[in-house]
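Onboarding guide, step 5: your first structure request.
Type a short instruction followed by the sequence, for example:

Predict the 3D structure of this protein.
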Amino acid sequence: MRFSDKVAVVTGADSGIGRATATRLLTEGATVFAVDVRHTDPWPEAVAERLHTVELDVADPAAPERLSARLRAEAGRVDVLANVAGVLHIAPFLEVTREDWDRVLAVNLAGVFFLSQAVAHIMVGTRTPGRIVNVSSVHAVVSEPNAAPYTATKGGLEAMSRTMASELAPHGITVNCVRPGATRTGMSAPIYTPQIVRALEAKIPLGKIAPPEWVAAAICYLASDEACYTTGACLDVDGGYAMDGSLPGTAYS
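The system replies with C-alpha cells like these:
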C-alpha cells in the first residue's frame, strides 16, 4: 500500500500501460484520476470510490486548465503524475505530412509538457513533494524506421524531463522517465505481426515481449517514496533490447 492517501493522475489510462499503471496505483491504495480521450472498458466496482475518470484529449490546448480545475475541486492536491498517453504514426520519412507530425508532437511532447506544468503548479502550491514519471521508448535511443515523428518525441521527452527535474528539484518534486521496449498494447498490436514477434523475441536478450504490467511496475516504483532520491533518470524496461549488440543466432569465434 505504497500509495495510501496519495492522489495520482494517469494519462492514457483506458488501455495498455496507462491502464496497468492506474490499476496498480489503485491496488496500492491511491486515489486515481484516470485520463483518456474516452473510457471504453469498465473498472472494478471495488475501486470505484477511489477512481475518477476524466475524458480529455491531452493534445487539446484547453486540457491542462480543465484538468487542473477538476483536480483542485475534487482532490486539492496531486502526489503523482504518470504521463503515459501516446500515439504512433507509421509512415516512411519521405512521406510524413505536416499534419502527421503535428498530431504526434501534440500528444507525445506538447501534451506532456503542458499537463506536467499544470500539475506541477498544484504540487508547488500545496508544497507537495510530488513524483512525475514520463513514458519514453527504447526508440528514443534505437532507431525505428518509418516512425520518425514518434522517435523525435521520445528523444525530446527524455531531454525535456531532465530539464524539468532540474527546475522542480528545489520544490522536492522528482521527474523521471521509464523507457519501455517491446510491449503488448493496443497501440502496438497492429504492427506486431507473427513475423515481427519472432524477430523481436530473437533480438531481445530476455526473449519476451513485455505485458504492460511489467512497465507499470517500473512507473510505480519511480512514483513511490522508494525512489525519493532519484530524479532526472531514465529506467530501461526492455528485456535488454537497447544494450545488446549481439547478432541473433550468431557469435564471434
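Each response can be followed by summary notes, for example: Residues 7-237 form a domain with the Rossmann fold fold (CATH 3.40.50.720).
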